[in-house]
Amino acid sequence: MSASEIVNKVWNYAHVLRDDGVGYGDYVEQITYLIFLKMADEREQTGQQIKVPDDFTWNHLVKLDGDDLELQYRHTLENLGKQGGMLGTIFRKAQNKIQDPAKLERLIKMIEKEQWSTLPADVKGDIYEGLLERNAQDVKGGAGQYFTPRPLIQTMVEVMQPKPTDTVADPACGTGGFLLAAHDYMAKHATSKKEQRHLKEHALHGNDIVDSVVRLCAMNLYLHGIGGDECPISANDALAKEVGDDRVELVLANPPFGKKSSITVWRKKMAISNNSKKK
Q1: How many domains are there within the chain?
Q2: N6 adenine-specific DNA methyltransferase N-terminal domain: which residues (predicted)?
Q3: The whole model's pTM is what?
């Protein structure tokens, strides 16, 4: 089954849940939680280290039905949100939005049929990007604030030409389009193992003011094979934190709109690096 076929299959079920009051954005979040747990289970079976606590693994969910399933799923989300690193970022403030146990079971069985870890990173990424794009198209209330058109992003990255040794940041990262495009461009020029490791674990940094969007971005990068034990994405207001030592070679961003902060930011001075990007 191709990436587009999987996207259509998974997205079609969103319409079923829509009748129960589950919005498209909520649906994508629930898909995020479940696919992550499924991939963690697959990787554990192949001997790869996974840090999901034993009581809250995918294996527990697939064995249950009815109210027991809904209760286990709710406890899983609550407990994983208390963890650190990538796990804590993806499940931060997670809640179950699928109240009908039968429909939750059907969704779990649909995800269970696919072997997500065996799919190439670009295919998994295409599937998830497809879901994000569908959500941006179908949700009218401000979805555009976190989904910049990918052709525009691609053009900007090609103009800036990031090097594989650069550190790239997006202070309003949304679902991670700029970071992923930068990663793909830099990966073509990363020839040494040192550069490849830097690209995977240290090259990309992003933050966003919206918790749910940070979750989507973290999962997007994770499915593309980006990130180490610590998540490169954080939930905070880029305008409300000091620059400090967190300097980068390149900033790629679509200036935020559609979201107002309750914080008033005052700056006596602003540190600006003189190491500007040159063609």
Answers
A1: 1
A2: 7-111
A3: 0.75
